[in-house]
Amino acid sequence: MGKVARLAKVATAAGAFGAAYGALVAPRRGGEDVASQWEKLCTYRYAHRGLHDNRTPAPENSLAAFRLAREWGYGSELDVHLTADDQLVVIHDSRLQRACGVGGVVEDKSLAELADLRLFGTHEGIPTFESVLDVYEGGMGPCPPLVVEIKTHGDNYARLTERVMAALDTHQVPYCVESFDPRVLWWLRRNRPEVVRGQLSENFVVDKDSDLGFVRGFTHGALIFNVFARPDFVAYRHDHRRRVAVWLACRLLGARLVTWTIKSPEELAEVEDAGGVGIFEGFEPGPRRAEG
Fold first, then answer.
1. For residue 111, is it within any domain?
2. Inter-axis angle of helices 157-169 and 129-137, to 10 degrees?
3. Nearest to residue 106, comparing CAs of 132, 86, 135?
4. Pairwise CA distance, residues 66 & 72, whole Å
5. Which residues constitute the domain of residue 231?
6. CATH number of the domain that 250 lies in?
7. Which of 35, 183, 200, 246 suits a disulfide with 157, CB 3.0-4.6 Å?
8. Which parts of the chain register pLDDT below 50?
9. Is 158 part of any domain?
10. Is 116 part of any domain?
11. Which residues face 115 on adjacent strands?
12. How many percent of the chain have pLDDT more than 70?
């Protein structure tokens, strides 16, 4: 086989692989309603776990942090868990040690048990999801959207997602839903296709805190499970965003891009100039749009 023929064969194989990979990571196709929802979502900036500082009386995922974000005209990203008695609470970690200084996990506790705990040594408790929705719905002026991250534990993805959607249905708060767990997006695809959904991810292979292992970490980071989830947006860790999977899904195939966590005005400007949405923390960039 001559050199030209070998090169042609390699090019053909590479093209076939690219097409197959593209079919796996492709986002949802079509949907005018999704496009109109996204147009509103992308006009806001989003405070990571509310406008918080864990060294102040407004720690992460607290009602105080969400009130501040609402007051300043920001949307918020927040994390929702399901308690042992089927209630929804907002906290980042399943394990309670970091935020509350006690052992155990959220999913093994009742709402009453969690109500006795305090966040980061402040007077703030773990809020219910309903109470956060009330903060945003009851504020003055236009209601900024929420980026609702569904935090699954074990196999509770279906019940948790169902409960989250039921709560959102009773409030007039704009939102999108995201999760690291592609089963959440698969559930939404089958049961609530009108909801704007996003696949959270990062380069798990280089993340020393990841417990996924190499195979699961690689496949999740490479967005392989988009084949089941068909997300409308990809929410990727900001300093891991320059990956083939992100370029292919977002730049070439049309998924919207969200990056987290933005730590400076320069990073936020870079994301927004490229048409993306940034979830920020540690500074106040001002609203992306004039309120009113």
1. yes
2. 30
3. 86
4. 10
5. 38-280
6. 3.20.20.190
7. 183
8. 7-8, 10, 14, 290-292
9. yes
10. yes
11. none
12. 92
